[in-house]
Amino acid sequence: MLVYRVDKQKYVSSLLKGIPGEKSDFRWNTKGNPIIYASTTRSLALNEKTGNMSKPFYGLSPSYVLVTIKLPNLDYKKITPEDLPDDWDEIGGYHTETQKIGNDFIASDELALIVPSTIVKGEFNVLINPNKVKDFDVTISVEEISERLKDLQ
Predict the structure, then answer these.
(1) Across 47-56, 68-77, 141-150, which has the greatest mean pLDDT?
(2) The CATH number of the domain where 55 resides is what?
(3) What is the residue-averaged pLDDT of the chain?
(4) Beta-carbon contacts of residue 59 (< 8 Å; ≥ 6 apart)
């Protein structure tokens, strides 16, 4: 299974450690719980990155790259919007239920969990458990982002 993430080149070497999750609360984890967020498509990864950046958005910094993460083809659990409370995706805050799901996932033996996107309804992101990456054949590769998407000024 291939999943994608847009990140700064300087963070690629530590990507599989899930460091941002240790430092901050996010939709699917609370601070102190390392986690890796990825998307099922390149375009969703770009939408997720730009949809969560400061406004106004004039393009990505040239320091960003598209990372492909190759996960083993396993049967991963999938959470759908119907599995969640009505207000799970509100703007401006994170729901305790989604954070509990993510924290429980991080504590599990599972490598990945498929969850709904809040940016593009009907599409899905993939949470990766950095505590389990070493137990599986997980690889990453990097490609440049099209100059059309970059802020070159």
Answers:
(1) 68-77
(2) 3.90.175
(3) 91
(4) 149, 150, 151, 152
